[in-house]
Amino acid sequence: MTAEEKTKAYAWARALCYYAGEDEAFLGRFFEMLTASEGVSGEFLYYLEHQNFLCNYQVAGYSLIDIMVWQMDHFKAQLDRDRESMKSNGDRMLLEAFHTMLLMEQNPQYYVNLMQTETGTDYPDKY
Question: In angstroms, rounded to a whole number, what is the distance separating the alpha carbons of residues 84 and 118?
Answer without folding.
Answer: 22
